[in-house]
């Protein structure tokens, strides 16, 4: 022991005691953490590194009746930020904003709103195009903490976007999450918002799978741990539509510069072969949060592209509706079809003057001539004879005033005004015959959708047998190859004699083929077409043009309704479109020419 | 030996082996901590090998140099290191407003590492001089100042962890040099008062304890009364001063003391470290198989949290082995301090022991959440050249003193 320390022993003891005390303290702490608490920390470390990763199921495709893909999936890229890795946040946002062509404040707002922790990634942008991604990759050095990932996106390889038919997808909302709680949806899932995507969501969606992956602290997946079990996703089923892509494309093109709707049905089973509502919009704008300006532009667009004119917009049907009154009058025996009525071009009732569309008048016309030439005065007089109630009865018989039940979302009922309606609207006793005189020519309070008119044409074609219009034709399981056809629901119109049907057919035949017919322009040649034009007066602007009908006359295969909003007269504007449709179908041999016609041509 | 003529003992191989073991353990852990990551980090293993090699050379040189040279130049070295500390504040590099390093070519070095050793030299020389009298307040204050000046400069960098090393150094060295236990207590007492002053009851109990010790020491009223009054004053003034601090200043102090989690997520780091160590269990998950380490849940895993890697991959057994190695190293070194005939050498060894012990206790304690996160590396194991070289110098000094323990200088 060193001499300079005279009381060294006490100091040595204190030093040694402190050293022993410190290391015993440390060891016991480690013993506690590693031995006694081991289980707890072990589980925590497992939870740290294991993550159950959901495997998204590929969404089912939508195809046309011949198997042409209409709606397909495309990998899309989303951009994420990892807060912990984001150095120099302002400059990162500046570079990113520049690349994405979006204000940096936007990104910053999303970032602040969505941030959940230093290691949780924040989705900044969805559906980034590949070229942009490449540019992003090039400038990766300037973008620390910015990563991207794949997510599915719809695209339309057939060039048919038809947003009113297909609808679109979007991220699930809180309300939807609440609604479909027991169906396994999770936050961030993509769900069908409108149209077929919404109606057939349970079929197209498929079933998610999962597996376990080992992740690092940044959430990067290091490897899949197969031994812990995995469930492969089950792809959504493919939906084959009744739509004929060629006809649909044609119709989209023809209607492109118009406002209106057109529906073509297979009148043998109610399949929708084509249906268009114009103007429409690009469904892809809904794939990301819509900028306020774009949304307002859509809402304020005078063409109202968001309205689905096929099933959601209601219009007066005009003269096409004369057929309903004719059927009622004939069936009730309230008219002698051969009796003529003189049309001077107007009808005076009290102080009011009801005009025929032909100012000079039709002269003397019987029922058949009145249908062929669409004389208003004849039908004004007819409804005076028939009365409101039989008209309402037959309107209901033809399924007006209620949904057709098509497989689309948001269909409207239309409106068949009856005496209850009039009482409510105008007060009991405050309405008179004049009020419903207009109904005879499809004006006034009567409202229909273009789809209802197509279904009406189908009922006429089949002499009272109709089918629920439907777009979906077959559902295919991509794994098993099982094909499940969607059976058509039948709709009957009972209590109409074949004499009446014959009469209505004859009238409709003459509309297209008669000397004075209003729809001569609908004649495609090679087959006979039957139909009825309508020109609905519109207090807000130009008349709406209607044409409904079916073909071939001898063996009806298609029924259609063409509606042009503010288009003018049905004869001039709507009928030629029907001709185009039929010519295309004939050229593609989609319409079987009846034997009788073939014989005549030979 | 060219510099020496007096009798030399053999090198303490116990210490050499222990240090070698710790260095190898460090390399093993650094390899595991860096192998799975980016190439930039993976280089660190090779760099660390170079540092170990370089450190061994430095150790050998320090070990063979005559101890009296250190004594002779102690104040010069001390002043030089103070100069470096001032320079680093003015021109040093670091992240943001932090000034800790000089960059010379590829090497980044921290003058605070030199300052630690220089302060040990200066204190050892000052305290070992014949005329020192701890009854003389001037001598005591002078010793305190020798530690306080570099401490303040390092704290300014700011590197509070390293600054605390200077505080930890001075009392044990003074005690070893002859300061009475009561005096040591009188130095610690105001700190106790300060901490307890925030609650009336803890303050009362602390004051009762201090009064009892003062009374039992049987010293005259000239010592008892001023000390008593000083502690009372500290107790009264502290809360008043505290309330005058800005909130961010309060937060800074609380965070430093580990009483408040800071916004940078030190709480997260410690939690992940505890999960790593705890999940290691008795045997550990095996080398390079620690999930916390390999998946980079562990923060700073090759530097400050290297011991968590040991804990996760080698379990309680690995932890115990490393802790025992440190204990053995310190115990054995302290034995050298006891045997040294030269007071200067003995004090240098005690200083070296205190520095190493302080780092080990604070660092390993931090990994299991019983010490604040201060950024002190674990000697010999943590990656980093400056710290390794300075620790190797300390061991070189210990071995040097051991070989010359019968020399009077």
Label the structural class of chain A. alpha+beta
Indicate the proportion of strand residues of chain A: 15-25%
So how many helices of chain B? 15
CATH superfamily of the largest domain in chain A: DD-peptidase/beta-lactamase superfamily
Integer-rounded radius of gyration of chain B: 22 Å
Major sheet of chain A, described briefly? 7 strands, mixed
Number of domains of chain A: 2
Average of pLDDT of chain B: 86
Envelope shape of chain A: elongated
Q: How many distinct beta strands of chain A?
A: 23
Instruction: Estimate the helix proportion of chain A, in percent.
Output: 25-40%
- Return the structural class of chain B: mainly alpha
Helix content of chain B: over 70%
Strand order of the largest sheet of chain B: 1-2
CATH architecture of the largest domain in chain A: 3-Layer(aba) Sandwich
Question: How would you sum up this structure in a few lines?
Answer:
The complex is a heterodimer of chains A (602) and B (409). Chain A has 602 residues and is of the alpha+beta class.
Report on this model:
The complex is a heterodimer of chains A (602) and B (409). The longest helix of chain A is centred in the first third of the chain and has 29 residues, at 8-36. The termini of chain A are far apart. In chain A, helix 3 crosses helix 4, helix 10 (245-255) packs antiparallel against helix 20 and helix 13 packs across helix 19. In chain A, strands 2, 3, 4, 5, 10, 18 and 19 form a seven-stranded mixed sheet that branches. In chain A, strands 12-11-23-22-21 form a five-stranded antiparallel sheet, sandwiched between helices. In chain A, strands 1-8-9 form a three-stranded antiparallel sheet. Chain A is built from 21 helices and 23 strands. The relative contact order of chain A is 0.10. In chain A, a hairpin with a 6-residue loop joins strand 22 and strand 23. Chain A has 602 residues and is α+β, with helices and mostly antiparallel strands. Chain A folds into two domains: 52-241, Penicillin-binding protein 2a (Domain 2) (Alpha-Beta Complex), CATH 3.90.1310; 246-276 and 316-601, DD-peptidase/beta-lactamase superfamily (Beta-lactamase, 3-Layer(aba) Sandwich). The model of chain A has no long low-confidence stretch (mean pLDDT 87). Chain B is mostly helical. Helix content of chain B is 72%, strand content 1%. Chain B contains 15 helices and two strands. Chain B has helices at residues 13-34, 39-64, 67-91, 111-128, 137-156, 160-177, 181-196, 200-216, 221-244, 247-256, 266-280, 291-294, 306-339, 343-367, 385-403, and strands spanning 102-104, 107-109. A two-stranded antiparallel ribbon of chain B has the order 1-2. In chain B, helix 4 crosses helix 14 (343-367) and helix 13 (306-339) packs parallel to helix 15. Chain B is globular, with a radius of gyration of 22 Å. The chains are: A alpha+beta (602), B mainly alpha (409). The interface between A and B is large, with 40 and 49 residues.
